[in-house]
Amino acid sequence: MNRQSRRLPSLNALRAFEAASRHLNFRLAGLELGVTQGAVAQQIRALETELALRLFERLPRGLALTQNGHRYAANVRRAFDMLADATESLRPEPENLTVSVTPTLAAKWLIPRLGDFTRAHPHLTLRVLATERLSHFFTDNVDLAVRYGRPPFGPGLNVELLFEERLIAVTSASRTGTESTVQAQVPGQVHADAALVLLHDSQSSWDEFLEHQGLTSSKPFKSLWFNQTTLTIDAALMGQGAALVQQEFVQRDLLSGRLVKVFSDPMSTDAGYYLVWPRKPRHPEAIATVRSWMLSMV
């Protein structure tokens, strides 16, 4: 007998039997399948009639599989598992991509935008590795990194500019009058009584920035020091002073009015934030998708 001439039982009857064989209860099987208890019982009776075999023992308090029922249930369950595997194999598997960024870039630029990414690319899962340490592509299983500095970053790497470094000084909007107080000084002179507390981090270059503004100070400004830029931004939001930061990291705070610029003129440097990835990547299509999306966000 060839395969085309084989007559198989109803798929609905087999589903009802498989569910009932696990629950040993027609009502629970019906709840799982979204049908009534009577519909399950009817499907089982039809299946037993077609097979000319009893599959269940009807007991006063439930069901029990017969010997034939036990053997048939195992084979039917295996067949359904094979159908499920075959169906899943046709669907694209989610791709996982590890992106290494600094904690500040993650918190202030990437994470606020990730909702847009996941909605646009539901089959691509991002693993964000936020660290100040320089991650290695192969030993740390990193696929794409955003690195601060100046290229080249090493052999065998592709490099693409994400955004140039443009530093601005910002403070809380609640510190009204800070900008006018500072800029009202005699040109070339800013005094400590300008009430400006400078918030420093490992990358801040306040002396260079103030010189870029054409300003000097007869007295040193008060200072607070932090080990991460994201902390200086949070401190500025809380009105504790002025932070010197990459413009993109505070763009949303500026647009919302939570932060204001202390000086209107940003300072550009020869550094920047670069997308970096191996020339022979493990997931080239996924990397291209993430790169394109990141660049569109700038």
Descriptive labels:
Arc Repressor Mutant, subunit A; nine-stranded mixed sheet; 3 domains; D-Maltodextrin-Binding Protein, domain 2; 298 residues; single chain; 23% strand; two-stranded antiparallel ribbon
Derived structural class: alpha/beta
Describe the sheet with the most strands. Answer: 9 strands, mixed
- From the spread of the alpha carbons, the general shape counts as elongated
Specify the number of helices.
11
Q: In CATH, what is the class of the largest domain? A: Alpha Beta
Q: What is the total tally of β strands?
A: 11
Offer a quick outline of the entry.
The chain has 298 residues and is an alpha/beta fold. The protein has helices at 11-23, 26-33, 37-51, 67-90, 103-110, 114-120, 178-183, 206-212, 229-237, 251-256, 284-297; strands spanning 56-59, 62-65, 95-101, 124-130, 144-149, 157-172, 198-200, 223-225, 242-246, 259-261, 267-278. The protein folds into three domains: 3-90, Orthogonal Bundle (Arc Repressor Mutant, subunit A), CATH 1.10.10; 96-164 and 272-297, Periplasmic binding protein-like II (D-Maltodextrin-Binding Protein, domain 2, 3-Layer(aba) Sandwich); 165-268, Periplasmic binding protein-like II (D-Maltodextrin-Binding Protein, domain 2, 3-Layer(aba) Sandwich), CATH 3.40.190.
